[in-house]
Amino acid sequence: MAISHIQAGLLALSLAPLTVLAEIEFSSTLQQELAVNIASGAGESVQKFESVFEPEWFTPLGDNLDMTLIARARFDAWDELGYEGERLDTSGPANGPLYEGDHADVEVREWFFDTEIAGSYWRLGKQQVVWGQADGLKVLDVVNPQSYREFILDDFADSRIPLWLVNAEIPLGEDDSLQLLWIPDLTYHDFANQGSVYAMTSPLLVPQPVEGLVFEGISEHKPNSTFADSDVGLRYASFTQGWDLTLNYLYHYQDSPVFYHQVSLDAVSIRAEYERNHLLGATASKAFGDFTLRTEVGYSSDSYHLLEQSSARFVEDQGIHRSADLSSVIGLDWQGLQDTMVSVQWFQSYLFDHKRDLVRPQQNHIFSMLYRQTFLNETWELEFLGLYGEDQGDTSMQAKLSHMWESNIQVWVAVDTFAGDRESLFGQFDQADRMLVGVEWGF
């Protein structure tokens, strides 16, 4: 029996959801990791016994529209790293976990749509944007805020906090492109809970008790206008004579709050406030035989730093000094041996307006070395990352040996250690040295 055009149209419409359902691609990972504290004299022996389930769905919604959805559920039998607890509320109105308890959280990790419009490529939704290529620390990779629940020990892909944003890339000829970002998401760095293993304690980063004054607490003042307080970014990328080059600009609220001190006769309170900044930057990289030279530089119009409490202007300036900052990293990668890569980096930060009563020095230097080797047909991988802070003499070292047991099962053992003065960046976690064992199953 023949059917009419209208009937055919209704039939196609009714079958469309089934067609989309049939084209959904599903994948996921299930990870289990145990971390045990190995520092002498440390308290609790187990840092975490954590399960992480991360499902991902991909589906085409039309000829020119795709959707990707990534979720994450975490459960930790211990609560030494903390989920709920005393910390700043840094999530924007549309961000943050769907559920958070003492031992678990559930969140929409990323959810974005990809499309092409008039030769330009658009990604709309909750996502990560990566600028720069530095290992261990960041210079320009600051579009997304970061979770410091485990300080800087997590991979950047896991510790970045995805944001709701508009990301457009416009090709400009064969080798050039322009990226435009509009970020209305008012979400900032998520720091470890007070009292947890990786809670910040260094005077370089957080206020210290003021002798003789009663501490009356901390209040947080966040931007609250989705449009007026949006961040915007531009990146021009070019490939010229073997060089990968970018020019970057980001007008944004810095993701770390500024801790203003309000001092009365016998008490002090702290107002945590987020401040605007213009970030101008550039990157360059080029391969020279077995070597690759990489560099990043970023100029921040405003950075904020804590004053010594003994400073004569501590009360007048509310414990804070503002200065422009120039940060950079130079890296050299060598791949002269089969299945082996060695990378060294030099990070530096320079304050243009430095005062003697600042907690941090005018120049700050950190050196790093990354060693990575695969063997036995790439079924085994050994990786070592060391960071050394020249100014405070502190170190962070991460070593990991991993094995692809099956094509979809990876197991590993790792050691993370810190050393240095308790007031330094890495030394503040001198009692947080740990050994880890883990397994990840992909399906």
Please, could you describe this protein's structure?
This protein has helices at 5-22, 156-159, and strands spanning 25-37, 46-62, 65-76, 99-100, 104-117, 120-127, 147-148, 163-171, 176-183, 190-191, 214-221, 231-240, 243-253, 258-263, 267-273, 276-288, 291-306, 320-334, 340-351, 363-375, 380-389, 394-406, 409-419, 434-442. The chain has 443 residues and is mostly beta strands. Helices cover 5% and strands 54% of the residues. It starts with a helix and ends with a strand. Residues 1-16 have low confidence and may be disordered. It is globular. A hairpin with a 2-residue loop joins strand 12 (231-240) and strand 13 (243-253). It is built from 2 helices and 24 strands. The strands form 3 sheets. The protein has an 18-stranded antiparallel β-barrel. It has a 3-stranded mixed sheet with strand order 11-15-14, with no helix packed on it. It has a single domain (23-442), classed as Porin (Beta Barrel).
Low-pLDDT sequence parts: 1-16
Helix percentage range = under 10%
Distance between the termini: 45 Å
Which fold does the CATH topology refer to?
Porin
Shape: globular
What's the number of domains?
Answer: 1
Estimate the strand proportion: over 45%
Radius of gyration: 24 Å
Q: In CATH, what is the homologous superfamily?
A: Porin
What structural class do helix, strand and pairing data support?
A: mainly beta
What string, H for helix and E for strand, traces the elements in order? HEEEEEEEHEEEEEEEEEEEEEEEEE
- DSSP summary, beta strand count: 24
What's the rounded overall pLDDT mean?
92
Please describe the biggest sheet, giving its number of strands, its sense, and whether it closes into a barrel: 18 strands, antiparallel, barrel
CATH architecture: Beta Barrel
Count of separate DSSP helical elements: 2
